[in-house]
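Sequence only, no structure available. Ideas?
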Amino acid sequence: MIAIIDYDAGNLKSVEKALIALGEEVMVSRDSSEILQADKVILPGVGSFGDAMNNLDRFGLVDTIKNVVAKDTPFLGICLGLQLLFKESEETPGAEGLNLLPGKIFKIPAKEGFKIPHMGWNSLNVKDNARLFAGINANPYVYFVHSYYLKADNDDIVAASTEYSTHIHASVEKGNLFACQFHPEKSSETGLRILKNFAEL
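Reply:
I predicted one. Tokens follow.
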């Protein structure tokens, strides 16, 4: 069973539909006991860093997420869900993230020829042996929608990166923690393969 965490932060249905299309058993929940019993957990998200952290706190899900990760349950953050795994974001100064991985979220710098938000298809540079990308070519195209990006403190956790006005850490992996800045559920066959790889961990 894969649990998708419901904290009023968008794109739950599209993630759920993609997993169901893959034949996976899925539940959307904000019930801590259900989430803790799941075989795998996904934290999706569209919206602002501060509002999302407030919602996670309001629904009592901050400790739930930390307990899921401590149990070694495979955990996937998508888009805003990636950003929340880190300590802080320029989007909401003073708001503290989940602080499960070392790094910070920055605003994509303004540069001529680059619209913000970064919205559309972009290619990735995937590292060898990145588990989410097993069976996928080294430069796949995936779909992004974001104005803020990750700069990880430790390059060892970076599974894939992309270029858009700056160098963006687009996917990370560490132990049972996985995250993508892009939307696998909107990234056609490549995205479905990424979700399938996660489901089969």
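Helices lie at 12-21, 32-37, 49-58, 62-70, 80-83, 188-199.
Hope that gets you unstuck.
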